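hey so u asked for the seq, here:
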Amino acid sequence: MATTADQLMAPGLTTPPTQSVLATMAATSAAGTNGDTSTKERQQEQQVDQNNKSTSPKPNAMPSLKIAKMMPNNSNKEKRVYKIVLTGGPCGGKTTGQSRLCTFFENLGWKVFRVPETATVLLSGGVKFSDLTEKEAYKFQENLIRTMVQIENTYFELGVSSTRNCLIICDRGVMDASAYISKDKWEKMMAANKWNPVEMRDNRYNQILHLVSAANGAEDFYSTEDHACRSEGVDLARELDYKSAAAWVGHPYFDVIDNSTNFEAKMNRMIESVCQKLGIDIGDRLQATSRKLKYLVAVLPPDSEFPPFQDFDVVHHYLQSAGPKVQARLRKRGQKNHWSYIHTQRRPNVHGQARIEVKTQLTHRDYMNLLAQRDDAHFTIYKKRRCFLINNQYFQLDIYKEPGHPRCKGLVLLETYSSLTGDALKNCMPKFLNIVKEVTGDPDYSMFNLSLKEDWSTTKKFCRTATHDKGATNGISKTPLVLNGK
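ran it, structure tokens below
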């Protein structure tokens, strides 16, 4: 019997809004609906809501896989539940990474749950793929996903009921199964079960961490010893590593932790990445390495020039904020009328530390309520976001669309996170893109400024503080990186 996406994925959306989001919603309720929300755009948002309802599959009779969403109460409204996936090819450091993350966050006072790898549990029972028929292998993968979802849901529910901040570490996630099955069979399985990738990939987990296999960049350390379910040679390990990374392309917070440093530094980069996304100040406990980079792209090449990619429709709304140094915005991101919603608050520098972004996953209802706080001084930003992976480097290409300010017409910006510099950074960049220059920290390419309705030369709202200043880039020079002779 088919299982609907709503039944399988509902617990992935239970992370409660932070105090800042709840405060904003309270302010909205107190102030009432204001004139910032145009009738036309409100109707468009309501139409999207109706479309979502009409296209959502109806729950069927599989109560064993359905867990109701749990609403936060007043006593734990500031609590955070953060769900991450550790994935990657064989011998990438997932087991050690789990242990390090667990120790680090428990020392911060968090409750940590570690979800076991479902495939290892099932395969350790005597299952061998080589002994299965094609039909048996297909059903095994389908049942593996169902089992994985149920196991994860158990931990997700515990995270919601916990009275402490909670980190839930999943040893692989549901999309990893697509790396071990053909594209046709995967799509057949998705359709038969009424699953969709936005729910399975984007809404279910807060962050994906791909730990690159030692077979790709650290071959001397690749080993199949001490692992009952690992028998892959180096070449197969590399292939599986690439496929497991490709399975998660499109997730909004997907970080690749490669082998460019020694193993200890690799583990620190993994922990640092999680702390950055959570907005946790790690001080000098970890050496900061990765920074956000942004580049101006001249002309968009044909789709055929790209490696496998995922395209998303993205809509940004800036919100009224508590002060001139605080930025708040909403993001709606989706494919084929399935959406995820994020609230971002950018806090000002404190004690010389770089700005911190706090991101909170929202329900559609919370998103619609917060739209009433839209800042009328900003245009709504519409983009097509293209996500792809090259040389273990994850890229997002933002293609600005109309309607919007004329300054955004034809604008294409490439973003990535990297600790590389100089020639090493240049060599990993997409060669098929005509990159004009690096614009990291350039206020002329800040989305906040790009969305302003007023003229930059006269408005007092123009933000001249670079988002990624010296503190954010760890003292690395912001000299523009010029590629392709431009």
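Residues 1-42, 48-76, 226-230, 467-486 have pLDDT under 50 and may be disordered. The first strand starts at residue 81 and ends at 87.
lmk if thats what u needed
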